[in-house]
Amino acid sequence: MAKPEGSTARGTGPQEPLPFLLPGSRVGRYRIEQRLGVGAMSEVYLATDESLGRRAAIKVLSSKLVSNSTITERFLREARALARLSHPNLIPVFEDGQVGTPPRPYYAMELLEGGDTQKLLDERGPLPSPIVAAVGAQAATGLGEAARAGIIHRDVKPANLGISRHGVLKV
Question: H helices within 90-128, ranges in order?
Answer without folding.
Answer: 117-124
